[in-house]
Specification:
Elements lengths: L2 H4 L3 E6 L4 H16 L7 E7 L5 H15 L7 H7 L3 E5 L5 H18 L4 E6 L6 H10 L9 E5 L7 H14 L5 E3 L7 H11 L13 E9 L8 H4 L4 H18 L8 H14 L8 H4 E4 L1 E2 L1 E3 L2 E3 L17 E6 L11 E6 L6 E8 L9 H4 L6 E7 L3 E10 L5 E10 H4 L7 H11 L8 H20 L8 E2 L6 H8 L15
Parallel strand pairs: 1-2, 1-4, 2-3, 4-5, 5-6, 7-13, 9-18
Antiparallel strand pairs: 7-14, 8-12, 10-11, 12-13, 14-15, 15-16, 16-17
The structure holds 6-O-phosphono-beta-D-glucopyranose.
Amino acid sequence: MNALLKSQPTVFVIFGGTGDLNARKLAPALYNLFLENWLPNQFALIGTGRTTLSDDEFRGRMLADVNHFSRSGKATDGQWQGFAPNIYYQAADVQDPKTYREFGKRIKALEKEWGAKANVIYYLAVAPNFFPIIAKNLAEAGLTADPTCTRIVIEKPFGHDLESAKQLNQLLGEIFQEKQIYRIDHYLGKETVQNIMAFRFANAIMEPLWNRNNIEHVQISVTEQLGVGERTGYYDGAGALRDMIQNHLLQLLCIVAMEPPVSFSAEEVRDRKVDVLRAMRRFTPENVRDMAVRGQYGPGWLEGQQVPGYREEPGADPHSNTETFAAVKFFVDNWRWQGVPFYLRTGKRLHRSASVITIQFKDVPHFIFSPETAETMRQNRLVISIQPEMSIRLQVQAKRPGVDMMLNTVDMVFDYKGTYVSEAPEAYETLLLDVMLGDQTLFMRGDQVEEAWDLVMPILNSWQTRTSQNLPNYSADSWGPETAEALVAKDGFHWFTLPLNGKK
Ligand code: BG6
């Protein structure tokens, strides 16, 4: 509990209050923050949407969402009665200035009731084409004039390419100060992702190893069993590179590759991360083919269920060239990482859902054991499993028990499950709390987003002009297209998968 926050009256306005993000993530996150006593004593949530609803009807919807999606399970009557009176609803036409005058009145009324000025957070959980109009209207209604107590939260996607991201940054920059803008990348709120920073910068033994002298290569793999399903409307214009690599996976790469910040302050951490993006080697139209591969899933079977191919998903273009899998080889051109490849891959409808970072160390400089022993010898690996397993394991060589000298690989494991009893918060709980606290460390700064777009643009351009003739090129329940294997195999590596608790 943060005493300062508890005493700070706060109004949370959610644009898209009747939408999917609020149902699945925001409502459960705010409710869990309430249960764990993190919300300010004077707190109001105002949901908005096009549908006309009374406050009570909206409360009923929120309760259903919490019951369905909250990690804490169904709300008890007593708990819900404590939270529900803080919830309000206002039907809104985001194009209409009148909407914003109404907000202004509501907020003033709450401030009058509380006898204090409130922090007001505007959360844009709407389609990106509404970002500009909402931002402009908020400003014109004078609702964001005080930069000390008004904040705006922008969901992804932040831009569709470099140009559109720049335009959005410019527009927001004309209305808000950077310290008011919270660009969400929900991966940064994940417990295990934050822990990478603790692991790197709160342990003295890591830093001396963390460079090109000891590390051979890095893999960042975010694989999903889920298909695109109902989301083709958004996804068909996006694809895996925009949807996952430009943001989530590059953010993970930044955390692995960044220099130690001087302090854990938002600007320091974000400066060091943007340094990584700036140092990353740019692709040329000629080398994209060697550095990046794409795939699209065809129909198949997954865990006993028959699943459609991407082109057969509801609303998908039957000839779509959109990639549902992408793998890219990056380099970070600086003293620490020169020559160390970073392989990133992500895809849908793959064999298993797992987000794992693997850091493979170099071979021992000289091998002293017998040739038979060499067969089971493996290089050391540090495996950071972000989800679903939450663990860090260091794979080392040990002598297998017996009269002869045989080696095998054993894991030194830090596992959240075995170490902590309390459940980790959802990413959105951490992020929403940080917005209320005014802490931008886990949010993307404007220059970061632009650098990330700049980096992936040559791939996007090349894929757009070079339509692939062989899509779909992987089936459900596989690890993606063969070309993804080839991307790492030509450097002498293979993609690692984490053996999970007896699961295949
Ligand atoms: C979202 C993408 O940002 O992240 C989705 O738009 C993807 O396509 C999701 O499925 C993955 O998030 P998580 O937290 O389930 O790994």
